[in-house]
Design a protein that fits this description.
- This protein is α+β, with helices and mostly antiparallel strands and 153 residues long.
- The chain has a domain at 44-149.
- It has four helices and three strands.
- Strand 2 and strand 3 form a beta hairpin.
- Helix 1 packs across helix 3 and helix 3 runs antiparallel to helix 4.
Length: 153
């Protein structure tokens, strides 16, 4: 039985809307699962022994640092038993700047915790890695400037 063209277009629109609704439901379900995985990874990353700071060093001109020029901080640390080193710009006068720079390390730790969680989806692990790489690239630009400003390049 052929439907009236006016009804057929409405039926097609209804089917499209139903497909979009199902896709939206799947997306919301996926976001809920990803949110649960991130929460579990953050809980796992906050356990004692996940992060072990072995050594830290701050270099730069004290005079410049007091006037607001970022110094250079270096960290030797372990995440889940694996050794890592990381350098970043560090301000003695701007805590918001420091929080932004330290977010690179936080993203790195979260990425490592997700990688170690074998229940985490590959999509989520890759998304965290991409967020870390983006922050790392920006932080490295800031670090290179701090190294140059302090004559450490």
């Amino acid at each position: 039985m052929d439907a009236d063209p006016r009804v057929a277009s409405l039926i097609a629109a209804l089917k499209s809307a139903e497909a979009i609704l199902e896709a939206a439901k799947a997306t919301v379900h996926g976001i809920g699962n990803a949110s649960d995985q991130v929460r579990k990874a953050l809980v796992a990353a906050s356990r004692p022994g996940v992060l072990n700071l072995k050594d830290a060093l701050i270099q730069g001109s004290l005079k410049k640092a007091i006037l607001g020029t970022p110094a250079v901080a270096g960290f030797d640390f372990e995440v889940l038993g694996q050794s890592h080193k990381m350098g970043m710009a560090f301000s003695l006068t701007d805590p918001a700047f420091d929080a932004d720079q330290l977010s690179e390390m936080a993203l790195f730790i979260a990425w490592q915790a997700l990688k170690a969680d074998h229940q985490a989806s590959a999509l989520l692990v890759n998304a965290m890695h991409d967020a870390y790489v983006k922050k790392h690239d920006a932080a490295q630009t800031t670090l290179q400037k701090a190294l140059k400003d302090n004559g450490l390049d």
